[in-house]
Amino acid sequence: MATDSLLPKRFNKLLIANRGEIAMRILRACHELGISTVAVFSDADRHALHVRYATEAYHIGPSPARDSYLRMDKIIEIAKLSGAEAIHPGYGFLSERAEFAQMCVDNGIVFVGPPPEAIRIMGDKQTARDTAVAAGVPIVPGASAGTDEELIEAAKNVGFPLLVKASAGGGGKGMRPVHKSVDLPDALAAARREAKAAFGDDTVYLERLIENGRHIEIQVLADMHGNVIHLGERECSLQRRHQKVIEESPSFVVDEELRQRMGEIAVAAAKAVDYVSAGTIEFLLDRDKNFYFLEMNTRVQVEHPITELVTGVDIVQEQLRIARGRRLRFKQEDIKMKGWAIECRINAEDPYNNYLPSTGMITVSRLPTGPGVRVDTGVFPGYEITPYYDSMISKLICYGETRGEAILRMRRALEEYRIMGVKTNIPFHQHMMDSHRFLTGQFDTHFVEERFKMSDREAPLVMEAAILATLMAHQQGQHASQIVAPGDRDTSNWKWYSRWERLRK
Amino acid sequence: MKVRRTCLKTPMKYITTVNDEEFIIEIEHNNQIVVNGVRYDIDFQHLPEADALSLLLNHRSLEAVVEERDDVWDVLTKGEVYTVKVQDERAYRLAKARGVASEVTGEAQMKSPMPGLIVAVPVSEGQHVEKGDKIIILESMKMENELRAPKAGIVARINVAQGASVEKDQVLAVIVDEEER
Predict the structure, then answer these.
(1) Over A149-163, what HEC string results?
(2) What is the pLDDT of residue A134?
(3) Considering A56, A482, B18, B171, which has the largest number of Cβ atoms within 10 A of its Cβ?
(4) Active-site positions of A?
(5) What's the CA gap between A342 and A249, in Å, rounded?
(6) What are the domain boundaries of chain B?
(7) What order do you get walking across the sheet with A392-400 strand by strand?
């Protein structure tokens, strides 16, 4: 099988086919294990941290991802040129492209991830569902892909409300909720159109719509020797437009018995595709604690750090060890979840203006520190948030002995965080940390979009902000009037003022 | 006993606006201010190296990052960014006078907040729109973003079509008051 082509191989130099915070995360794990790193970068990223901190760095093309971070041929070429014996794809970009994993294998390069076949099976939702069923993994009742007529007929058995989903889908594209049978034909047409445009494939299938469902996922680790363990669950129900914004581990609603059941099923799903490396099985959990397989992510996840904090397992280091052919160092009974971890994704977007992305230069980035706080980021003062890549600035992760402690710590860290130059969603996170529903764990995957309003929030320091700005303006005006009348200056007051400050030192 | 008066500068009066709320702030002394008639002791320090302002307001410690942008100040403190307009009395009166004039020619230009691709333009020229209606769908940073009408009125002009690439600050559409037509 595919595992034969992934013969254990020691490597000492690894190419990171990614950018931003995850490139830094991988780079750090490599350097801790004595593996030297090769960074690749686009035009926009010459100054990026992953370039400056890597052992070597190579330019791969213009800023748009399709001309740089998605260029499989270029990346393989640079791996060979630099003598990198392995490639870590991170998340996004090429991480779930079976074709790329296959190219690595064909070129004798270790792909730090699962075998191409596992990516292929899990990458197609319909095949993944069929595979799950065969392995005894529960799936949301639904109907397999077919013609519109077949699906309309099958919908009678599935029942309403239901979801039309694109087989090649992701990120909510090609997905349509349908509440009444009369709306189904239109929804099928719309979903097919959207799926065709987004993925070049208009295959769709039906799934019963689980109301008040929670998104719970299980982290697994698998080595090349058939050992598979799980690292417990992550609660990822807080999403906006199918993008997770806050994750926590463990989940408020998962007890030890449920964790074990979900964990065993997740391990079975991984074994069904001869999985290797770190992977995540996503489940939908309904009100009655029934859970259904949604999909498997065959890569490291954005939110992996919360699992690291509660289990003490360094997931990226484990990926590297596994890729080197080592056996897992942990047995299932060694994995004990301790404490509570929460992650807030800090994005460059304006929560007060429909979450509109914000671009521009980061002028100030002062990170929160202190006990129990971890920040994974690739951003620094002078860094430009460009429209070429996603809008994530950093991941703020807080740990506490209990959920309450983790929340209090997160509030404190959000208050300490200073980012200027772009709008951020920090106020969104602060508002969530104050929300009664969040505090009591009462939320589902629709909570953020349907029942959470930023307009409820009263900014607490309006008068103080007025005083601060007035004092600043006053001080600037006083200095300015001593030297030159405002109209005679050819530059902004602020620039002029800071020059004056420097002269004075 | 008028010793204190010797260190008094000319008292300056500012009208400062945050979220439509106005504050009258008088700075009459280096370590005292009056806000809406209430006197506060202050110790104000500007730390350029740390990009920070430190203010002790009746000994309550506040730290902020403050940046000037166009003619407003962005004040970041405890996670929130406040947009603050500071005007001295003279500027305030001038702006009031001008403000009345600009309301009459109520034309709102919708500029692209970032470079991107126009995915859809769900309105057409001459159409009446309400404040908050979707005018342009712009794809950028891997997301579709809805640009909404800043005010109610008539769509006077649409400068872009579906599929167009746009630059930051490019004027995409113009909305005018109903009665202007």
Answers:
(1) HHHHHHHHHHCCCEE
(2) 95
(3) B18
(4) 299
(5) 7
(6) 3-102, 106-180
(7) A291-297, A277-285, A214-222, A228-240, A243-249, A340-347, A392-400, A373-377
pTM, to two decimals: 0.83
- The SS3 assignment for A462 reads helix
B15 to chain A: which residues are within 8 Å by CB? none
Taking the Cβ of residue A461 and every Cβ of chain B, the question of whether any pair is shorter than 8 Å is answered with: yes
Question: What is the rounded distance in angstroms from the CA atom of residue A103 to the CA atom of residue A110?
Answer: 10
Q: H or E element: which one contains A305? A: helix A304-311
CB contact under 8 A, B140 and A357: yes
Instruction: List for chain B the helix, strand, coil content (%; round to 5).
Output: 15, 55, 30
CB B57 within 8 A of CB A464: yes
Name which of B46, B50, B101, B94 is nearest B71 in CA terms: B94
Q: What is the pLDDT of residues A175-214, one digit of tens each?
A: 889 999 999 999 999 889 888 888 888 889 998 999 889 9
> How do residues B12-70 score in pLDDT, each as one tens digit?
999 999 988 999 999 987 789 999 999 999 999 998 777 789 999 999 999 999 999 88
How many other CB atoms sit within 10 Å of the CB of residue A154? 16
For the cut 70, the answer to whether the pLDDT of residue A307 exceeds it is yes
Least CB–CB distance from B67: residue in A414, A420, A473: A420
- CB atoms closer than 10 angstroms to residue A83: 12
Q: What ipTM did this prediction achieve?
A: 0.82
Q: Which of B17, B33, B74 sits opposite A467 (nearest CB)?
A: B33
- Which residues are CB-neighbours of A463 under 8 A, at least 6 positions away? B18, B23, B35
Q: List A278's β-bridge partners, or say none.
A: A221
The nearest CA of chain A is from the CA of B12 a distance in Å of: 8
Backbone angles phi, psi at A267, to 5 degrees: -65, -40
Separation in Å, CA B69 to CA A215, A472, B89: 41, 13, 20
Peptide bond into A250 cis (omega under 30): yes
Q: Which CATH number fits domain B3-102: 2.40.50.140, 3.30.700.30, 3.30.470.20, 1.20.1250.20?
A: 3.30.700.30
Class of domain B106-180: mainly beta
CA A95, distance to chain mean position in Å, is 12
